[in-house]
Design a protein that fits this description.
Structural class of chain A: mainly alpha
Order of helices and strands of chain A: HHHEEHHH
Radius of gyration of chain A: 19 Å
Largest interface: A-B, 59 and 59 residues
Number of strands of chain A: 2
Helix content of chain A: 55-70%
Largest sheet of chain A: 2 strands, antiparallel
Distance between the termini of chain A: 28 Å
Oligomer: homodimer
Number of helices of chain A: 6
Chain lengths: 141, 141
DNA sequence: TCAATTTGTATCAGTAAGTGTTACAGAAGT
DNA sequence: ACTTCTGTAACACTTACTGATACAAATTGA
């Protein structure tokens, strides 16, 4: 399996929840649609729950539902809740401070990083879960 | 060391090359500024060379220089040459095709992915290596 | 109260990617 | 020839994600 597909799975799961409105969906059922293990789904739902996007209930007839209407959940929130939010990372080790470039490049890259990440966030905030539901609906054959 | 910092290191190295104009810089010297191993730098320069951003020469007095002026190298090109260019990944395994959401979500996410990646590319293409040089210069104390 | 269900979480193994290092063949200058 | 470099292979280490089993705690309902 490749890199970080958590955002994709999160959007998938949230769309399922949106389609079922107020009914609690179980991690087993969601995992069946995503084609993965229920624990993977529960871990992901844990992140979404911490971000107040979903509400989970333990016990019999438990499960997970959206915390609000899909038109009030932007993809930017989803992205933030399951990723570090950085398109690229800064240097692992600090560059050589005796070098004029090394001394100043980090600040430049940091500003650039923030700008890129903000751009991604703004783009994602243009879409809500309701938009995704609609697109999925239109894609139906 | 953390995630993918290759873009940061690439911009760092290219800025060094830009500052030294036509002189060949050695991987040892560049590694000293980045604070890493020469082989790491040479691997990175290999990518940049394949993308025709730099020219390397083997042998004594060898090294690497830019293939063109820094005002003609956009950060989008740099980004493309050292990363997969995807802000988020699609599903690892294909979702359950018997589920209405599973059947259609991939296409929706793929469109969204392309749009986000294009947005990042457009933002990065607003900056050239010459802009970075200037910002680094201004940051000097 | 007791049994069944379901989440939350710990734990472990497997996979993939990036990093750092040593080593060495081949190219090129003197 | 000898020295200096790049290009690259090989290996160990770390980190992150995925997938799986296991079980405590919560909740429902009989």
């Amino acid at each position: 399996m490749a890199a970080n597909s958590q955002f994709s799975v999160a959007v998938h799961v949230l769309t399922m929840l949106a389609n079922s409105r107020d009914a609690n969906l179980k991690s087993d059922y969601l995992a069946g649609s995503v084609n993965t293990n229920p624990v993977v789904v529960r871990r992901l739902l844990g992140n979404l729950s911490q971000a107040n996007l979903v509400i989970s209930q333990t016990g019999a007839n438990g499960g997970t539902r959206l915390s609000r209407g899909p038109e009030n959940i932007s993809l930017a929130e989803v992205y933030r809740s399951v990723s570090c939010g950085e398109v690229f990372a800064l240097h692992g080790k600090s560059p050589n401070q005796d070098c004029p470039v090394g001394r100043n490049i980090e600040a430049v890259l940091c500003r650039l990083q923030k700008e890129i990440d903000r751009t991604v966030g703004e783009k994602l905030s243009q879409y809500t879960l309701a938009d995704v539901m609609e697109m999925v609906e239109q894609g139906k054959v």
